[in-house]
Structure formats: structure tokens, C-alpha cells
Amino acid sequence: MFIFAIEVFGPSKSNMKADVLLEYQRLVKRYGQCRRKTYKNCLHEAAQHIPLEDRCELPKGACNPHEKYSRVGGFCNNLKYPNIGKANTPYGRILEARYADGISEFRRTANDEEMPNARSLSNTINEASDFKCETVKCGDQTNNFVGIMFSQMVAHDTSSRKVVTMRGNNSNGISCCESSYSSPLPPNEINPSCIPIPLPRNDSFYSNKGIFCQSYVRMQPTLKDDCKIKYEHENIVSSYLDLNTIYSNSYDKLKGLRENYGGLFKMDPLNILPVDTTGQFTAGDFRFGQTPVLGQIHSLFYRFHNLIATNLGAVNPHWSNDDIFFETRRIVIAYYQHIIYYDWLPLVLGDRLCHSYKLTCRGKCDKYDPDIKATTTIEYAMNAFRFFHVNIPSNIHVVNDSGALLEKIPLSNTYLTVDILKEKYNAILRGMMKQKQRMNRVGYTGEVRNLFIKTKYRGKDVGVDGMILDIMRSRDSGTAPYIAYYPIPF
User: Fold this and answer.
1) Model-level pTM?
2) Could you give the CA distance from residue 292 to residue 295 in angstroms, rounded to a whole number?
């Protein structure tokens, strides 16, 4: 139940090298070789005998400045620094990682104590009187449910973590708790990447179900893009706003999504989403099916692509399948980026901040600077861009073509059930447009905080606490305390 497997891939060669070097760092520190020097300098000297090619993947291939279309996966998006922002490279950082041992152990408090229990924090924050709001008064009067799902689309387009898996296994079979979820596994049985989370004995939701432990499996270590010996985390998607959620990060994956004619995607008979060789829904990003409302945002872009491709093919009958497809891809990505900068960001940040940080373009727009690193920062991916989780409503509204509400489906009943779109596509889309998102001040809904990826345990509905995941991801990534970022003049 608590083996959370939404973001899982088997370890790459780079991940395995990082595992070895990470253990090397721990041994160097454990046996006191760094007592007379700063740890950073000591480690650097001790690692000099490791060949460069064994520390990281060196850049391969060259960029063609005359290439018409941007590459899938982000390689050569920046001709000066081809690997910047491409898929399967480390996240960037605003501040240096903060780990208790200087390597990878979770940060501790100023009094050198363990950080507060994540579930206790979740309970304290969400049980505050100001956060207990599920009524219509909690609705945002400006933004609707579509805005939340578009935010999630942007999040998935720019970030995807990779968690530790068993060697040679592409599914996360790691649990940190006893099979009864009564306690963490004993030290001699637990995976080193496990961080079991004890749940309070008086927890208002889990305790009466006999659940007192939730698993958290850490992110895969990888190597810094400058080949230095340092523990970092890998972003398996490109950092660019290139709709890899639709077009994927690899040409092999993209090939499986496409028709062999007309520059089209291979859609199901109801024109909802692409289908794989077994006839099941698929997409450029594996997370498309978390909820039907997220799947619907993907669907709209796939439909839009095929509409543009059909029109382009009609006026350019001499174009090849690839010509139509990649020209359409360029147009669709341009629309997507325009929506982000002219419609979505002003709603999220406000016009004043967008203007202050030059996030909108007025008049001449040739502002490209190759020396600005476009790499997604880990602070953004694991912290700041979790903001919209508080906006997620408790229900999905189903609305008929007259605008009348037909039903409210609890969000937890829709996890991993994108097939519901086959029967209720238009009704759910109408509901998303009419339904208000929750206000920022009202905390996480119980559908996310207690029932995320819901399942049955001893006949009762249970799930993961989404706020716990957000707290643990922040700690796992070595994010510094908020107060350390406050003085930075962004």
C-alpha cells in the first residue's frame, strides 16, 4: 500500500557510479581522513585517482546550428552549452545542499536534533482552524480546476525525480515498514535508501486502521554535470518548456506514439489519448494517468496537435510525415509557451511580479542569453512548485451540457482511473472549467492528505499523505531552510 511507485525508473550507469562514489565519500569521512582539512578539499584530493570517465558521462555528439527543430530531450537546446537542461542530468541549485553529514544525511535542527515528524507537521498545519475549510467559501474566485491541472502539467514538463529501486528492477519493490505497517523494518532488513516515517499513535486518520508506519524511498544519487565528486539528484525530463509530457524525452518513445502518416499521433477510437500496442492509453510522460483531470489536459494537447497537423498537411500535400509532425510540434510548443507567459504566470504571480522579473514580452522579444542556465533547480522542483497542492479540490465535478451539476466524484476515487474519460470526457471538462480551485490558505484536502493513491487495507480506504511526500522530498533534496533563501535578491 505505501510502496509509492509513481516516479520510478531502474538505475542508470550514472546512478550506479554515484552509488559507489557516495559510499566512498562516507568511508573517507567515517575513518577520519579529513580531520586536518576541510571536508570538501579533503574529498577532492582523495578522489583524484578516480578517472574522469568513471566519475561522470562526458558530453557526446555535436550540435548543428542549422538544425530547424529543437531536439526531443533538450540536448543542444543551448548551442553554447549543449547538455544544460537536457533530460537525465542533475538538477541545478540556488544554494548548496544542506545535509547533516555534508554528504547525504537529512538535515537536523539548530539544536542537532532530528527534524520534526513529517506526519505530525502535516497534522498540525492542516488542523489549524483557518485550514479546516471544505465549503464553497474556500473557492478561489478567479482560478478554476483547469488552472491547477495546467500547473501540474508544467511541473511534470520541467521535473521528474528518480527514486531508488532494486537492481535490475524497473518497479519500486522497496518497503520500509513491516507488512502490518505497525513499525519500521529492523535495521538488518531495511534498505539503506529507506526513510520509514512513524505515524503518531493518536493520529486521527491512521491510528484506528492500525497503521503506524509509512515508507519513503529516497531519490537516486547521480553525479554533478561538471564531473565533481558530489551527491546530486537526477531530473529525468528536460528542464525546458518543450511539452515532453506530450512528445516525451526520447525519439524511441515518441516513435511509438505516432502514426506513420500525416504527422499525427496514434489516438484511440474516441480520440482521447494515444494508445500503445495493447490498446491501452499512453502519453509522453508516464504520470499522465494519475487522475483523469490530468489526463484530460494531455488529451487537449494531443487533439490540438492532430488538428494543426491535419490542416498543415492539407495545405502542404508534398510534405513528409516528419515534416508535418515536427512543424506541428514547433507550433504547439509555441502556443504552450505563450499560454504560460501571457495567461498562466500572471494568474499565479500577478502582473506586477511578471513585469518586474521580465517574464512577459512586450514588443521586441529577442532576449535570449545562452549564459543563463535553464536547468530546473531542485528548490523549484521539490519545494516551491508544490504550491498548487493546496489548491486541489476534494471532488471532481461532472456537469451536463446545460451547466447543471450531475455528480461530485471524490478525488480519491479517480486516482489511476483515466479510463473514466471514455464515458464522461465532456462532462468532466465542463466541470473543470466551472469548478473553483481551493484558496491558498486552506491547506491540503483530506483526499490528498490521507487518501492519495487510495487502496484498501483491512477493508478500509487508506492512502498516502501527500503533504508527507512534499516534506520528505524537500529534506531528501538537501534544501536549505527558508530563512537562508529569504535575503537572496531573485
Assistant:
1) 0.87
2) 5
